[in-house]
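Blinded run. Sample ID left blank on purpose so nobody reads anything into the name before looking at the predicted structure. Input follows.
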Amino acid sequence: MSGQASGPLASVRVLDLTSVLMGPYATQIFADLGADVVKIESPEGDTTRRLPPVLAPGQGAMFLNINRGKRSVAIDLKTPAGRDIVLRLAATADVFIHSMRGAAIERLGLGYAALKAANPKIIYANLYGFGRGGPYADFPAYDDIVQGASGLASLQGRLTGGDPAYVASAVADKVAGLTGTYAVMAALFARERSGRGQEIEVPMFETMTAFVMAEHLCGAVTEPPSGPAEYARVTAPDRRPYRTRDGHIGLMIYNDKQWRSFFKLIGDPDWSRDPMFASMTSRTENIGTVLGRLGDVIVTRTTDEWMEAFRVAEIPAMPIFSTSDLLNDPHLAATGFWHRADSDLGPVRMPGIPTRFSDTPGAIGDIGPALGAHNHAVLAEIGFTPGEIEALEVSGVLRAAAG
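Blinded prediction complete.
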């Protein structure tokens, strides 16, 4: 079931000229929420098709998940005929999203002016590394590059007390993808009011800088700065999962009420009356010492003992789960989070849609499609005859689906 027929975006058609993770993650959300997402690929296909584990030729596991519910057309965009196909598709589309550098998309003749001429109401979204107005504009960018450039890797190093380090998730790609999703939806809403399309720019560097500096601007919020651009609580070396007697636990004793409950739980020791524990301000000013003292206490009981006590005391805490643990987590099972379906590869499992709509729920479509699987269906919808489509495949403008 690719090209969804239900959900809050059921009437929206998206042309998806993105690859790897940032753009496909954004358009996955559109597909989950009901949009008809047409994935435009080169004859070689999205590179994630070949990322291990590859379950079948052209069907890497990441590709299957983040391109679920989409339809694939494989077009050689360097040919005039390939460009014309995209412009004809654009005339029927609501949204065009690409993740190429600005100069590259213009060389293909598929910049905003060309798409706007084909469809004045189209929402045209640029998702790329750096904003067009600065000296980094034409630099290539991937998640690691932007984690480093945005200050995130440096902050991770501060947390670990060592060299800069990357977060163990492609967080820059996904935050930029989410930002692209909400920006396009906002533009669609504006078009409902004004009737006008528009161009959107979502640069990873600026997006992640805003994301990081939401809490880390701190003392630099004033000119001149009154202190460092760093939120000391989250970079304190003692901010980490706490070791228990038999494992680890995630614990966040945050407000005054929670600290009072914690002290009562451990018998109100003499050190609990130290002025540094008296308020959020004093705890933050002495965060290293506060967290270190907390760690000395948590190691004295087992994870289960602490979890039972914290649930009674209403103190936020959870055991530390691995990604494998999540596959059988009882809460995720109870909420129906994991989506299971049959496919040509056998049974598959994918993360579910985390948002819930009472009236227009989304749905997860088929796993990521074979390269060019929907050439005929998509092009027929814009007036191509079967003979014309076959001729385009023979000439190499379209890549025919294998088999």
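Unblinding after everyone has recorded impressions. The chain has two domains: 13-211+334-395, 242-319.
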